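Good morning,

Attaching, inline, the backbone tokens for the sequence recovery test we're adding to the shared suite. The designed sequence is right after.
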């Protein structure tokens, strides 16, 4: 807001602070100041900083709310004063109405247009098929090694974690699921969707140690052993890819 105030002062020397600018007859100047601060290009009809322009209207409405409260409470602060309390209240109220009714057409719609255009122009980076195949093979090897180690009773907690990570990663990759759809999946939800499957048989297939390292208080299908949290799969997949020699794009 400091940069906006500087722009306003350059156009109106009577304004000392933002409180002075909260008048309906300053609406056009507020629009111009927002465009200057956000780097608006009149020829291209676009903003250099569209997010800043998009949020400027919200910030001004919040400023109006705070200023209106100060006037209502008759609070006197340094550099904030008014001659007629009712007149100032009406000025702030009218300016807020103008912002709510017209800011979208003047600023927000153009800022949103710039944001959308940048999203369209941003190139989509897709992994190479050979990288996907390499990742798939590596996941399979990790899962198989962890499974064999579990059967042999070797580092049960560590290998159980590895196996859970691999199954979660494969579920996301091969079922084309969003990360959140899987990592936040709770056992209760999974059981509702799979009533025809005998879940008790699956539970009985676990060893006593495997049952111990996964507390019943953990509600997640892909749980973190010894914890009540779920796996953050993006981090886990990045770690596996980094271990393979790939870097995050």
């Amino acid at each position: 807001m400091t940069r906006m105030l500087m722009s306003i002062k350059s156009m109106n020397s009577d304004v000392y602070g933002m409180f002075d600018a909260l008048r309906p007859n300053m609406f056009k100047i507020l629009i111009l100041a927002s465009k200057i601060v956000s780097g608006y290009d009149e020829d291209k009809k676009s903003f250099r900083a569209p997010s800043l322009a998009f949020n400027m209207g919200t910030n001004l409405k919040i400023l109006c709310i705070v200023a209106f409260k100060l006037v209502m409470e008759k609070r006197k602060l340094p550099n904030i004063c008014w001659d007629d309390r009712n007149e100032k209240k009406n000025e702030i109220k009218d300016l807020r109405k103008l912002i709510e009714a017209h800011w979208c057409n003047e600023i927000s719609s153009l800022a949103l247009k710039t944001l959308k255009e940048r999203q369209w122009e941003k190139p989509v980076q897709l992994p190479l098929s050979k990288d996907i195949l390499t990742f798939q093979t590596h996941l399979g090897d990790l899962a198989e090694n962890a499974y064999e180690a579990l059967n042999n009773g070797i580092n049960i907690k560590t290998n159980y974690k590895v196996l859970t990570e691999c199954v979660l990663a494969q579920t996301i990759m091969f079922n084309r699921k969003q990360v959140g759809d899987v990592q936040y999946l709770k056992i209760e939800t999974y059981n509702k969707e799979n009533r025809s499957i005998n879940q008790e048989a699956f539970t009985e297939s676990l060893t006593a140690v495997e049952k111990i390292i996964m507390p019943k208080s953990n509600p997640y299908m892909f749980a973190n052993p010894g914890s009540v949290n779920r796996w953050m799969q993006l981090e886990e997949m990045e770690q596996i890819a980094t271990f393979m020699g790939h870097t995050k794009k």
